[in-house]
Structures are given as structure tokens and as C-alpha cells.
């Protein structure tokens, strides 16, 4: 079920996560893309559609050792189970069935930058036109004091799904987190297209033109949307 505060504005909510070869969205690549979709007419609380795709790297590229250690994803897994980027882009695009779509991620700035360049390479960047975004990390920063990793949110809200640095697990954790935060205080609509960032580190990657960015403290005294 789409949270009440979002249900008047959106027909479809898609929660996603990526695992990548590095931090540079323009030059590094997505190696795992996962997403969970729920639509307005979806019965119950579970997603009506999920995808979890490994993506093959260009010939000659390999996964850096530190990424293998973090995620457990290896070059052998990509060769054995991976799909071409073009196929992954097509299958991801098929999730966008409603006219009014919200895309959610935990630390959405990171994933959306990678998603844009991934879609751009296959002529599908227009898929994001008119789509709106919600950063679950921004909401969590307003709800709880530091630290603010997804693992901390999993523990705080006693989520069933664990943060494993695998895209499908982190997607489902973020999906569950969204529901728990709405139960706690359903002001999620106030955070649509509003991303908080650390004053110390600034905004990571390219700004998204439709998003408003505001500096956000580690222990905020009031919600970011009231500042």
C-alpha cells in the first residue's frame, strides 16, 4: 500500500538500489540493479513487482577488489548471471506503468546519478522526465540522530530485511523502511524532491534539476521542509 500522504499524488512508487564499480556516476558502472514497485491498486503491503539484475561490464573491465569485498559480487557472477546493460535498461523501464511515479532510494542522490547515466547510454533518459524523487536518508536524518547508515535504520525500526550491500536486500529494506516511517509520522509527501546534504561534504555528484537541496544537520531541531 502506498503511504497515505503519497497516495493522492502518485499512482506508482518504485524503490531502488544499485551496486556499482565505484563512486563516479559518469565513468563507473552499475553491476547490480534492483527495484521494487507498488501501485495504487496493489493489494496488501508487498511489492507487486520486483527485479534484481546483475549487469555485465564492458569487455576488458573488471570489478575492483574493494567492491568485491564489500558486495560479494565477482566478475564470475557477472559473466554467469549478468545481462547486457541494454536488456537491464529495458526491464527497468517496464516498471514505469503509471502516469504519476515516485522513485525512492536510500541516499537517492548516489543511485539517481548512476541511473541517469545508465539510461542515457541506451537512449532511455527520458524515462525520468516528470518523475519525482524521495530520499529515505533525508527523512531518516530528520527522525533519528547520527549515525545514519541504512544499517542503522534497519536496527532502529527493527526491519525484517537486513542491509547487506546487495542491491535487492537494500531495496527491500528501504521499501520496508518507507512503510515504517509512514506509520511513525506520515509526512513523506513533504520530502518529495527535497534532498538534505552534509555541510561538511557537500552535494555528491551532479545536481538533479527538479530537486531542492538543503544543508541538513546530524541532529536537526525541526524537519528539513520547515527550514
Question: Helices and strands in order, then pairings?
Answer:
Layout: H1 4-7, E1 12-20, E2 30-39, E3 49-54, H2 65-71, H3 75-81, H4 85-93, E4 101-105, H5 108-120, E5 132-135, H6 136-143, H7 150-156, H8 167-184, E6 194-197, E7 212-215
Description:
32% of the residues lie in helices and 19% in strands. It has 227 residues and is an alpha/beta fold. The longest helix has 18 residues, at 167-184. The protein is globular and about 50 Å long.
Short description:
This protein is an alpha/beta fold and about 230 residues long. About 30% of the residues lie in helices and about 20% in strands.
How much of the sequence is in beta strands? 15-25%
Instruction: Name the poorly predicted regions.
Output: none
Overall average residue pLDDT: 95
Query: Strands of the largest sheet, in order across it?
Result: 3-2-1-4-5
Distance between the termini: 30 Å
- How would you characterize the largest beta sheet? 5 strands, mixed
Overall, the morphology is globular
Order of helices and strands: HEEEHHHEHEHHHEE
Query: What Rg is obtained from the alpha carbons, in whole angstroms?
Result: 17 Å
Supply the helix-strand structural class. alpha/beta
The proportion of residues forming helix, as a percent range, comes to 25-40%
Tally of separate helices: 8
Tell me the number of strands. Answer: 7
